Structures are given as C-alpha cells and as structure tokens.
C-alpha cells in the first residue's frame, strides 16, 4: 500500500498548528487573547461554519472538493506528464497570479533546490520555468536558455483573457511557428475554463492538449486543479500524495469545533488580531523550499480579504497586508522591526520537523570560543534553534505569532498546507463578512491597461485617462 494511505503514517505527517504565542498566557494580556475571547465569538463562528457547509453543498466552494473528485483528470495528467517527460527538455508555465504562484511554490517545495541545474538523469522531469511577468528582458532571457524544439509551454489562465498571459502566449505561438513549423501544436498545452475567455476557443481551434479548470474554482484556489497538478506531475511530483494530504487536512477542517479545527483557529485568531489593528500578516518559512509558499499565500490572503464592501454592501475596507519573509535570512533584515516596531503584525512561522538532508558543522577553530560552539552541531539544529529563538524573542516583546510545523516536507504535508491555508482564508472571509472569492479591485487597472493599448470597447476609458489632470512638474525632482 502507498505510504499516504497508512493511517499511522498520516498521523505522523499531520501538520501542527501552534497558537500559544497568540495567547495571553504567553504574550501577556495586553496583546494576547484568551479562551474567553474565542468563546465570545461562538455565534459568529457557528454562523461562519454553517455558511461554509451550505456554500460547499450548493457548489460555491468547488476548490474544496478538488482532493476528492479528480481521479479521471489525474489519470489524464499522469499520462500527459509521462509523455512529456520523454520528449521535452524544458517545461514552461505561462501564467500569472493564481495561475503561476501555486505551481512555483509546489515545485520549489518538493523538488531539488537546484532542480534545473541537475543533469537530466537526476531530475524527475524536464527543466521547469514559470514566466509570470511581461518584463521584456525576462522573456528574452528565457528564450536564450531553452531550445524551442524541445520545450513545452503550458499556458494557464482561468479567465482565458489575462493580458500578460495572452501576450506571452502570442509571442510563444509566433516563435514556435517560425522555429519549428507545423509541429508547434504539440508544444503548447492550455489549462483554462471550459467556456469563458479566448483561450479555450483558440485551444479548440488549434487542437492543443487542454485541461479544464472547474467552473467554481477561482485562480488563487486552483493549485490542486490541473493548474498545479500538471506542472507538478511533469516534474515527477507524486500528485496523488499531494491530493491525499489535502483530503486529510480537509477532513480535519470540517469540524465545527474551533478548538479542534486548525484552519478555523488560525482564521479566528487572525480575525481577532485584525480587530485590534494588526494590519500586517507576515509569513516566515524556515526552509528555502517553502519560500514561494509565502508568495502564494500573499496573493491568497491579499486578494481574498482585501475588500471595500461587506456582503451587505457597507464600506468596510477589510484586509491584512501580507509580508513575505524567510528564516533565517530575514532575521538579519526585518526581525528588528518585528520585535521593536509598531504592534501591527501577526507572524506565521512555517517550520519543519525534520529537514530532508543534513549538513554537519565541523569542529574547527576550537580555540575561537565565539564560533567553536557551532562545531559538532548540524545546520538543521542551527536553523531550528534560530526559529525557536526568534519565536521566543517575539513572544518576549509581546508580539503575536503562530507556528505551523510540517513534520517533513513531502507531497502529503504540502497538500495539507495548501488546503489548510485556503480554508483558513475562506473562513476568515466569512468572519469578516466579505466575499473571499472575487477581486473587483483589480478591474480598474486592467481596464486602464486595455484602454492605453487600444482595445476596442475601451475608448471611453481612454478618454477618461487622457482627461486626467496633467502631472505637476514641480512635484517631479
Ligand atoms: O488565471 P487568470 O484568469 O489569467 O488570472 C490570473 C490572475 O489575475 C487575477 O485575476 C488578478 O488580476 C487573479 O485573481 C488571478 O489569479
């Protein structure tokens, strides 16, 4: 039996959410919360739970079902992935936001940290790139390091119309036609909505291999759909284990009791903290492999909760600004601010129980006491000690923090982490009484871009832009 089906192994691999340092017993009663604070929200928590259950039953949270109902899709993905591994040297994701950050986070978490630099026989698949910007220098630089004839491009867009992704796709399409001729069709795979947008129609007309993002799954909640599963499988990641981890966490997070439900507890305490003006949510993994999880979480938390209007239409200006940090690196850059600056943050540490590899610090310079004490320890011991020490320093300075620990980084625990943070976000949305699944605030910028580039239908917006007050040269130095 595969390891992720063993209840005992699952139990060993269960992610732990430690909220001691959010509580008054640890950070003091001025900053910390008590059981009574949480219990006082009982009705609101119950109402939010009921909404989650009802929305899920009504099909409003299809992303939560991704770990359970995709066997057919998984089989197609595995078949495609195997075929691609045999024929391509590079696999490039064209996408942005929710169509890029999840694939990047999972790949970095689960494959070698210098995956692309390994020789082909030591990699689980082709070299992997995520092109999530339209910086011309970056696009040109990628073209310098890939062989178009041996590269497959996975264009991912839920809406099928995001300007950045479509521009990248148009460039790649033209480049492939020029460089390899009619065979280019096999070098493009589309991942998009079954109906919406331009990409699905182009993919059908052109005959690309296409994977569908289910209708009820929004971009930032789509990592466990083909958006993330195909790139992961192509790079040799066990996507069944990833989904099993997410399913395991989902079940834990079905419980109505906030004291038993890790996602609800995270959301409730963040909600209480927001109520006290903690407007910044720092995510600080103590593992380079989890660095991009902080990026993925930043979009999830920011786009989901940053809302002007409540569900009942009042102006609430909700949200918490996500900040990305990396332990230990940012101890030497940001932690000074976290311990002594404004009391406006909640830090979420992401820790690792056991690192996958270990490096010994040799016993050298034994006559230099200031560094000799390091000799004989491992780097794993050092990074873990630094994490504990930073948690302690923050606690002593009365700063709020959580610690989420992955017993080890593997597909099962990473799947759990994705589902945990998505449910946390959705539940925080319920508590804040906002829509955690839309992003109306990005429309103005998108429309202005369309107008500036002359998209038909945006003439009025172009005029509006042209009639804005000219910039005052006196304010430009
Ligand atoms: O997958 P799409 O539709 O191209 O969208 C990319 C990203 O753009 C946004 O719509 C914001 O502009 C995100 O919500 C989304 O993840």
From TrEMBL:
<keyword id="KW-0963">Cytoplasm</keyword>
<comment type="function">
    <text>Catalyzes the reversible isomerization of glucose-6-phosphate to fructose-6-phosphate.</text>
</comment>
<dbReference type="GO" id="GO:0006094">
    <property type="term" value="P:gluconeogenesis"/>
</dbReference>
<feature type="active site">
    <location>
        <position position="446"/>
    </location>
</feature>
<dbReference type="InterPro" id="IPR018189">
    <property type="entry name" value="Phosphoglucose_isomerase_CS"/>
</dbReference>
<feature type="active site">
    <location>
        <position position="332"/>
    </location>
</feature>
<keyword id="KW-0324">Glycolysis</keyword>
<dbReference type="Pfam" id="PF00342">
    <property type="entry name" value="PGI"/>
</dbReference>
<dbReference type="GO" id="GO:0004347">
    <property type="term" value="F:glucose-6-phosphate isomerase activity"/>
</dbReference>
<keyword id="KW-0413">Isomerase</keyword>
<dbReference type="GO" id="GO:0005829">
    <property type="term" value="C:cytosol"/>
</dbReference>
<protein>
    <recommendedName>
        <fullName>Glucose-6-phosphate isomerase</fullName>
        <ecNumber>5.3.1.9</ecNumber>
    </recommendedName>
</protein>
<dbReference type="InterPro" id="IPR046348">
    <property type="entry name" value="SIS_dom_sf"/>
</dbReference>
<dbReference type="InterPro" id="IPR035476">
    <property type="entry name" value="SIS_PGI_1"/>
</dbReference>
<comment type="pathway">
    <text>Carbohydrate degradation; glycolysis; D-glyceraldehyde 3-phosphate and glycerone phosphate from D-glucose: step 2/4.</text>
</comment>
<feature type="active site" description="Proton donor">
    <location>
        <position position="303"/>
    </location>
</feature>
<comment type="pathway">
    <text>Carbohydrate biosynthesis; gluconeogenesis.</text>
</comment>
<dbReference type="GO" id="GO:0048029">
    <property type="term" value="F:monosaccharide binding"/>
</dbReference>
<dbReference type="InterPro" id="IPR035482">
    <property type="entry name" value="SIS_PGI_2"/>
</dbReference>
<keyword id="KW-0312">Gluconeogenesis</keyword>
<comment type="similarity">
    <text>Belongs to the GPI family.</text>
</comment>
<dbReference type="GO" id="GO:0097367">
    <property type="term" value="F:carbohydrate derivative binding"/>
</dbReference>
<dbReference type="GO" id="GO:0051156">
    <property type="term" value="P:glucose 6-phosphate metabolic process"/>
</dbReference>
<dbReference type="GO" id="GO:0006096">
    <property type="term" value="P:glycolytic process"/>
</dbReference>
<dbReference type="InterPro" id="IPR001672">
    <property type="entry name" value="G6P_Isomerase"/>
</dbReference>
């Amino acid at each position: 039996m595969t390891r992720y089906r063993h209840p005992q192994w699952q139990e060993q691999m269960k992610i732990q959410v430690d909220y001691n340092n959010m509580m008054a017993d640890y950070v003091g009663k001025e900053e910390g919360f008590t059981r009574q604070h949480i219990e006082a929200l009982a009705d609101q928590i119950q109402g939010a739970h009921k909404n989650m259950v009802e929305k899920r039953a009504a099909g409003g949270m299809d992303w939560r079902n991704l770990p359970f109902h995709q066997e057919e899709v998984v089989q197609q993905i595995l078949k495609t992935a195997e075929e691609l591994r045999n024929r391509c040297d590079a696999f490039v994701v064209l996408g942005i936001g929710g169509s890029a950050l999840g694939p990047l986070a999972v790949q970095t978490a689960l494959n070698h940290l210098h995956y692309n630099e390994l020789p082909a026989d030591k990699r689980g698949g082709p070299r992997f790139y995520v092109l999530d910007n339209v910086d011309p220098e970056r696009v040109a630089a990628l073209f310098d390091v890939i062989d178009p004839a041996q590269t497959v491009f996975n264009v991912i867009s839920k809406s099928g119309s995001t300007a950045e992704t479509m521009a990248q796709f148009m460039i790649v399409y033209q480049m492939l036609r020029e460089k390899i001729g009619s065979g280019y069709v096999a070098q493009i795979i589309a991942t998009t909505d079954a109906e919406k947008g331009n990409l699905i129609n182009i993919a059908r007309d052109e005959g690309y291999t296409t994977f569908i993002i289910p209708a009820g799954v929004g971009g930032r909640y789509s990592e466990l759909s083909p958006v993330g599963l195909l790139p992961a499988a192509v790079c040799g990641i066990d996507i069944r284990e990833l989904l099993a981890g997410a399913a395991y966490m989902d079940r834990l997070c079905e419980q109505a009791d906030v004291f038993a439900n890790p996602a609800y507890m995270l959301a409730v305490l963040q909600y209480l903290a927001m109520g006290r003006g903690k407007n910044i949510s720092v995510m600080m993994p103590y593992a380079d492999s989890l660095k991009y999880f902080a990026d993925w979480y930043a979009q999830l938390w920011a786009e989901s909760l940053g809302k002007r209007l409540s569900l009942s239409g009042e102006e609430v200006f909700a949200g918490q600004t996500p900040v990305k940090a990396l332990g230990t690196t940012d101890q030497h850059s940001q932690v000074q601010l976290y311990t002594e600056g404004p009391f406006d943050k909640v830090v979420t540490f992401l820790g690792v129980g056991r690192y996958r590899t270990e490096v010994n610090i040799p016993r050298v310079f034994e006559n230099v006491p200031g560094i000799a004490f390091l000799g004989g320890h491992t780097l794993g011991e050092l990074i873990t000690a630094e994490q504990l020490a930073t948690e302690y320093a923050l606690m002593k300075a009365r700063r709020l923090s959580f610690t989420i620990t992955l017993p080890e980084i593997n597909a099962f625990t990473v799947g759990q982490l994705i589902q945990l943070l998505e449910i946390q976000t959705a539940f925080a949305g319920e508590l804040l009484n906002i829509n955690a699944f839309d992003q109306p605030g990005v429309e103005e910028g998108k429309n202005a871009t369309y107008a500036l580039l002359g998209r038909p239908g945006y003439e009025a917006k172009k005029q509006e832009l042209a009639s804005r007050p000219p910039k005052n040269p006196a304010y430009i130095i």
